[in-house]
Design goal:
Blueprint lengths: L13 E6 L3 H11 L8 E5 L5 H12 L3 E4 L10 E4 L5 E4 L7 E4 L11 H9 L6 E6 L8 H7 L4 E7 L9 H7 L5 E3 L1 H13 L3
Parallel strand pairs: 1-2, 1-7, 2-4, 3-4, 7-8, 8-9
Antiparallel strand pairs: 5-6
Helix pairs in contact: 1-6, 3-4
Length: 203
């Protein structure tokens, strides 16, 4: 396990969770462990076909103290809420309205839609958010790598990746570790508690 500390002036404003194969189980474990006083929004990109994400969001909402919903065009991010990118749509932060989400059917990225690279790219150019915690969970491929490479020079970023032992597929996390973009490598059961500490700025 590797652990860094955020910069003293790091103020988290948004959490981004990204996952592919094995992601629904990992996301459920994290989201249902967070308490209702979690003080910043969470945006989720799970590689999942259209029509499945709405049911996934509803199931998580019933099990979680947080409000979980499938993201819709124009949603304004609120503390204590989780927004799941709809299957078949990229999810972005708009540049016109503070902390609002936009859906797009732009071309596949990394062969998928939604792709977290697209979301992170939109955050990199946002005028409204600076401190981001990015969590890269189990999954095949390299989605998240280009997005983090783009985001890190522009914003304050703290990146957690799921460890190999608890990942169903150690693809997406491995690429982040190999690129030396991971601040922490944690087993799945430890991630929710660490997020809560980071958001409380008691790290």
């Amino acid at each position: 396990m590797s652990r860094n500390k955020p910069a003293p002036d790091f103020v988290p404003e948004l959490v981004v969770l990204a996952a592919s194969t094995g992601g629904p189980v990992a996301l459920e474990k994290i989201i249902t462990a967070l308490k209702k006083d979690f003080s910043i929004p969470i945006v989720v990109v799970q590689h999942m076909p259209s029509h499945f994400t709405a049911a996934f969001a509803k199931a998580l909402d019933k099990k979680s103290e947080l409000h979980v919903k499938e993201a819709q065009d124009g949603d304004v991010l609120a503390a204590g809420s989780v927004y799941i990118a709809p299957g078949g749509c990229h999810l972005k932060l708009t540049q016109e309205l503070k902390c609002a989400l936009a859906l797009s059917d732009d071309a596949l990225v990394n062969g998928i839609r939604p792709a977290v690279d697209v979301l992170l790219g939109s955050i990199a150019t946002s005028r409204f958010i600076d401190g981001i915690v990015v969590v890269i969970l189990t999954g095949m491929g390299a989605d998240g790598l280009a997005g983090l490479q783009n985001l890190s020079p522009q914003k304050q970023v703290y990146c957690i990746v799921q460890d190999e032992m608890t990942s169903t597929v150690y693809g997406m996390p491995r690429r982040i570790v190999e690129a030396k973009l991971a601040d922490e490598v944690l087993p799945l059961p430890a991630i929710a508690a660490r997020l809560s500490v980071l958001v409380r700025k008691e790290s």
